[in-house]
């Protein structure tokens, strides 16, 4: 059967992985695509840099127009990061009649509506399995396999870098800064890891999942998010004492008042699948009204897992599955009648973990409990003593500076509204015997 | 847009769930299918029995020919259990020009080659997501989403009934027979649970996954299998002491000598995702050469999860995705050049858990160690004392009959071949101080 020509635009880590898979596993890919898939062009503005893939002579070019004007190229893997020039290039490729496969979650989170509208106008498709969860098939999972369900909730670990850092801190007692350095050393974190650790990356991915599962057109910047830079080793230890691990959890959940959306370090109960996700892995727990709970777990980043998802999308695009899916999903479209609006985060109820740094004086506990009670918050359990396991660990524990005579006071609340918790914490921090630097984390049972 | 007519054949538990989903969620399904899906017929030989679904007047009929001869019916959900008459009915439907959606793993495990060949000849398709893992999208996961990978291994918990029974035994110390009764009481187990607990159901599902992932045409009866009826509460307790849970594990793994296939109660290390699968859940751990480890977890049976998978298949069939997938997967076809042949189980190496029931006499240990050494098997660790936690548990522990003066001797081996283990166990059981009823379980680290 006649072969089909494809191109890769952007020869970074992911592009190199995709090129290698296409070049080395041609037979396998031809079998699944029903015909040979010929990598005809690889486009990058830098054609000289060394990459960990060997391309045949002449394949790597810096002229995008050659791809756009070659009518035999039907599908393009566009794996340039960031918003521009990725956006303009994608629009030009769509206008040139190409179907797109991308892994760029920032671009979709930012310009999804524009790009999808344009693709629809032009009768083209955009496949984006690799944009969320790396090699985990969560886009197909929700968009195709769970299509008989109304999705009720998504609870997910979507940033492998953060999960690696939290795992290092939790298992080895490594301080935050050192754990970040280790993540950089292993290639999990960028030189500037801000987008990973402040929850932005997870919020971008969550906005894509929320669009897919709930038809919610949410700007990712509007998703309340707290990063893991607020978490200290001492909090991981107290959490363990209560029976929890701390995870950077991205949540999208339909509640009667609307759609709850947020990203925050969260105490997740020990023994539940999400709590046991270690290292650079991602995981997504989806609840559908027919299927119940379904849980996906795998490598959320990295050259090969991401290339696995990109090439699967490319095969789907070549055989025609993507065109069908794209037409029926109505992603980022205005077709849906009922629009889902995000809920006011201040009104979202839940349990909370609070840590205060207080002078070790009689009555401190009573006064703090009084403030909480005054805000309608009741205490479920409480720890007031030196940081745990201090004796058994000779290393600095990453906890608060040990002002002599001050102790951590840790409180787990019953259900409370985030707004009430914020108000209570402000009042407590104003008390004379409470030092700055209190910590507030959500709890998920 | 014009609606499409579909039919359900077989109004048992799954058929009722599918009918309810189609009737109650018409808008949702129409949105994903791109047009209204009309349930035109429900066929069952018994039209009078009460079911937990209310069908519109005249929908339920006992005459299959009306479906076969209605040219407007394009797709049929065939959810009759067992091999016959399910096989004959499926052939008649295919010959009548209908695409098929089925949940019947026994039928596919038994007659997959015949049915798929016939469907191909007739230009029709068979979708079977619900045949393995209930609501977990494992068929699409492997067949479509991981299509860029060579699958290297599958380790799976595919029988929810067995997992429920093992969980009850492990967590509550319930004896095997009582745990089976509880499973029946909750509707997880049939009146005759033989196919569930003896590993046959898991072997049928494994044969389907092996076909999908490795192109292996394996008759499920040829898959070596051991059921959970060989496991006692005392073994679960010893396993815990070594740091393991016992799971009924279905394994398909490519090794240099061929494809390893088996179903057996297996010690799985505590803290790994498979070990933490509780109750009636299923889970599948897939390793692909690009994606690495991917783990799927969800309800493996039950009316609604299974209906979720069936209706997703039905939507895929209506929109045309199934036809594409079916054509490119070459399932149960003779197209593949290299046939994968199962490996001789006697040669499969691994670690083993052995429990012997011995007279408490000096030298027993030494003599048993001698036999193992003679068969080339070395001991990794060993427990010789009364059954654990006996003092803390007033109930009978389900262990071996307590002949006065006899004790359990538990051994964990280093890597050994199954054939050598079998030979050693035979020799040990022939020793004068060893009583009948020794236990041999595989260990997976």
Explain this structure.
- 2 copies of one chain form a homodimer.
- By secondary structure, chain A is of the alpha/beta class.
- Chain A folds into 3 domains: 4-134 and 305-329, NAD(P)-binding Rossmann-like Domain (Rossmann fold); 138-299, Dihydrodipicolinate Reductase, domain 2 (2-Layer Sandwich); 347-444, ACT domain (Alpha-Beta Plaits), CATH 3.30.70.260.
- Chain A contains 15 helices and 16 strands.
- In chain A, the strands form 2 sheets. In chain A, strands 7, 8, 9, 10, 11, 12, 13, 14, 15 and 16 form a 10-stranded mixed sheet that branches. In chain A, strands 3-2-1-4-5-6 form a 6-stranded parallel sheet, with helices on both faces.
- In chain A, helix 5 (105-121) links the parallel strand 5 (99-102) and strand 6.
- The first copy, chain A, is elongated and about 80 Å long.
- In chain A, 54% of the residues are buried.
- The interface between A and B is large, with 54 and 54 residues.
Low-confidence stretches of chain A: 387-403
Q: Biggest β-sheet of chain A: count, sense, barrel?
A: 10 strands, mixed
User: Residue-averaged pLDDT of chain A, rounded?
Assistant: 90
- Number of E-state strands of chain A: 16
The CATH homologous superfamily of the largest domain in chain A is called: Dihydrodipicolinate Reductase, domain 2
Percent helix of chain A: 25-40%
Oligomer: homodimer
């Amino acid at each position: 059967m006649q072969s089909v020509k494809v191109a890769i635009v952007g020869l970074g880590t992911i592009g190199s992985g995709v090129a290698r898979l296409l070049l080395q596993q041609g037979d396998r890919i031809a079998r699944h695509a029903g015909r040979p898939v010929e990598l005809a062009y690889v486009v990058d503005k830098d054609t000289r840099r060394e990459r960990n893939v060997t391309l045949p002579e002449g394949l790597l070019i810096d002229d995008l127009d050659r791809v756009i004007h070659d009518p035999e190229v039907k599908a393009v893997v566009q794996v340039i990061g960031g918003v521009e020039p990725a956006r303009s290039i994608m629009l030009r490729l769509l206008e040139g009649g190409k179907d797109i496969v991308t892994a760029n979650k920032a671009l979709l989170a930012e310009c999804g509506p524009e790009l999808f509208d344009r693709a629809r106008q032009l009768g083209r498709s955009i496949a984006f399995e690799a944009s969320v969860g790396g090699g985990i098939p969560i886009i197909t999972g929700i968009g195709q396999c769970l299509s008989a369900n109304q999705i009720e909730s998504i609870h997910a670990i979507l940033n492998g870098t953060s999960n690696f850092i939290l795992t290092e801190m939790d298992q080895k007692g490594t301080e935050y800064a050192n754990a970040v350095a280790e993540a950089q050393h292993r290639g999990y974190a960028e030189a500037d890891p801000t987008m990973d650790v402040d929850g932005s990356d997870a919020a971008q991915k969550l906005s894509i999942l929320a669009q897919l599962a709930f038809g919610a057109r949410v700007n990712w910047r509007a998703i309340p998010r707290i990063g893991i830079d607020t978490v200290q080793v001492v909090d991981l230890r107290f959490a363990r004492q209560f029976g929890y691990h701390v995870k950077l959890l991205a949540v999208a959940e339909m509640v009667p008042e609307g759609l709850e959306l947020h990203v925050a370090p969260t105490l997740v109960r020990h023994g539940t699948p999400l709590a046991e996700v270690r290292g650079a892995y991602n995981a997504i727990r989806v609840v559908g009204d027919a299927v119940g709970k379904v849980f996906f777990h795998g490598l959320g980043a990295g050259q090969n897992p991401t290339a696995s998802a990109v090439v699967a999308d490319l095969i789907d695009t070549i055989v025609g599955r993507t065109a069908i899916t794209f037409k029926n999903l109505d992603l980022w479209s205005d077709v849906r009648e009922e629009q889902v609006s995000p809920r006011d985060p201040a009104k979202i109820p839940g349990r909370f973990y609070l840590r205060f740094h207080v002078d070790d004086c009689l009555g401190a506990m009573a006064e703090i409990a009084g403030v909480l009670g005054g805000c309608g918050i009741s205490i479920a359990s409480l720890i007031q003593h030196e940081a745990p396991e201090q004796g058994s660990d000779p290393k600095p524990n990453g906890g608060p500076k040990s002002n002599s005579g001050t102790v951590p006071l840790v409180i787990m609340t019953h259900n409370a509204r985030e707004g009430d918790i914020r108000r209570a914490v402000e009042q407590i921090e104003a008390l004379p015997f409470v030092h700055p630097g209190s910590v507030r984390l959500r709890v998920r049972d």
